[in-house]
Amino acid sequence: MSCCGKALIDMSELSTLAALGAVALVAGFVDSIAGGGGLLCLPALRLAGLDPLSALATNKLQGTFGTASATYAFWKKGELEPKRHFISVLTCFVGAALGVAAVSYAPRNFLDLVMPPLLILIALYFAFAPKMSAVASTPRLPPAAFVFLFGPMISFYDGIFGPGTGSFFMLSLVSLFGLGLVEATGRTKLFNFTSNVASLLVFALGGKIVWVTGLVMGVGQFIGAQVGSHVAIRNGAAIIRPLLVVVCLAMAARLLLAH
Q1: Mean pLDDT of 122-148
Q2: Would you state the pLDDT for residue 134?
Q3: Is there a contact between 33 and 243 (Cβ–Cβ < 8 Å)?
Q4: Cα(93)–Cα(171) distance, integer angstroms
Q5: Residues 82-99: pLDDT tens digits?
């Protein structure tokens, strides 16, 4: 192969990496506020030529950067105390690891059918529920219900499939456990980071991660999540609530159009 041909291939690869990094930056911004970034990154990885399992594994790598960045931002601003949620982090970790281990047995057709209406219902809830703010309300369930049921169950789903995980965490924390939107967003990032790390470790053992691509996208995710987290903390419910509605509807539409 000529030097010119080699240079063209290298430029093509570099432009693909740059485009994926840009997609990840936007996804990190959106994900840090309302979740749903995976539905931008996963199709982009597939278009770049990755097989489905490698795309899913690489998406977990780059997504981990975003959730880590957002978690750190909420912690630094005093909106999150990770030490208080050690047991929840542990159960979410186990749930996600079991989800990845079970990924080959996942009923994908069933999930594809169920996910869009669930996301639409979540969007309707956040659109028409009574006004939400950063102020906590009376919880409907005890904290143990999240620690030992909802947290690991949502994390298990994240390991198997993924889209909407952040929205499911938000819905349960706000509607069932009485958290205000800003606090719920901070905890969502922590638990989503945990499920991403668990999934990433299991995928890494399987050798399916495309490391260069994942790390380049991870840089974009980190930057986007930093910006998005500060926007969420500064604007609170005014930005989180409408973006949750838009993201849930967009995810539902994307899943419907894909089949």
Answers
A1: 81
A2: 61
A3: yes
A4: 20
A5: 999 999 999 999 999 999
Secondary structure string (H, E, C) spanning the chain: CCHHHHHHHHHHHHHHHHHHHHHHHHHHHHHHHHCCCHHHHHHHHHHCCCCHHHHHHHHHHHHHHHHHHHHHHHHHCCCCCHHHHHHHHHHHHHHHHHHHHCHHHCCHHHHHHHHHHHHHHHHHHHHHCCCCCCCCCCCCCCHHHHHHHHHHHHHHHHHHCCCCHHHHHHHHHHHHCCCCHHHHHHHHHHHHHHHHHHHHHHHHHCCCCCHHHHHHHHHHHHHHHHHHHHHHHHHCHHHHHHHHHHHHHHHHHHHHHCC
What pTM did the predictor assign?
0.82
